[in-house]
Amino acid sequence: MKKVIYFMVALVCGSFVACKTQKSSYVPPVDIQSLNGSWNIISVNGKKIVSDEPAFLTINIAEKKMYGNNGCNVINGAIITDVTNQTAISFDKVISTMKACMPNNTEGLIMKALNETRSYKVIANGNAGITKVVFCNEKKKDILVLSKKEINILTGEWKVEKLNGEVLSGEYIPTMTMDIAEGRLYGSTSCNRMNGTIKTDASDDKAISFVQVATTRMACPGNNIETPFLQSLEKVTHYKIINTSTIDFLDATGNVLIRLNKQ
């Protein structure tokens, strides 16, 4: 493993420390929690990413953790925030695997840019909200651009609308609460409480699966849909966004297993 020397990322936006850029839909400073989730690294120092593997960062402010891939090697580290400055952040003890990379890989440029980052700004796109984060160096020049992964939209509370094509109604309907950054699932099967692990694939933004799903063991009414719901959940391999409040979970052949509405 190779350590990257401490590098400070003071996240400061607005009129005090704004990055120098061309025309963009930048928005005023936002809560640092808006950085939570997974982000694709799309350019470094104005150059398109060249990589062996998808380059991305996953940020979790509450847990003070960062991990991802620099386009060749896995990276992770701790996040340090400053209670006296809500826009300040630094990454501590960042380590990387040591796999050999193709000659023109931008891995080194990404690591250098992370080391040089001193501020950030966010870019919004209408109703889609924040879609990009731009990191800047001490001279306020753009050096790293990240785009939000669509899968982040799944984070939150959802209620099952359809199961295997049938509209659900009544008192006992499954619910799902997902935390994509942490890979956690919990909710109700319509009868029992459940929790499990969410698996995603950095090389396929639409891939998702649920493993190690455990439930309580309360006896359920005879007409309860717990069993078919859990069976369908086990078959999920991908998701499809219908709109910001509706998503479908699909099986390996593209059949819609579960439709969810955001609560």
Q: What class, by secondary structure content?
A: mainly beta
Q: Given the C-alpha coordinates, what overall shape results?
A: elongated
**Continuous helix count:** 2
Largest sheet: 11 strands, antiparallel
CATH architecture of the largest domain: Beta Barrel
Mean pLDDT across the residues is 84
State the distance separating the first and last CA atoms: 43 Å
The fraction of residues in strands falls at over 45%
Radius of gyration: 21 Å
Explain the layout of strands and helices:
Layout: E1 2-4, E2 7-10, E3 37-44, E4 47-48, E5 56-60, E6 65-69, E7 74-82, E8 85-96, H1 107-116, E9 119-124, E10 130-136, E11 142-148, E12 156-163, E13 166-167, E14 175-179, E15 184-188, E16 193-201, E17 204-215, H2 226-235, E18 238-243, E19 246-250, E20 256-262
Antiparallel strand pairs: 1-8, 2-8, 3-4, 3-5, 3-11, 5-6, 6-7, 7-8, 9-10, 10-11, 12-13, 12-14, 12-20, 14-15, 15-16, 16-17, 18-19, 19-20
Entry summary:
The protein is 8% helix and 48% strand. With 263 residues, the protein is mostly beta strands.
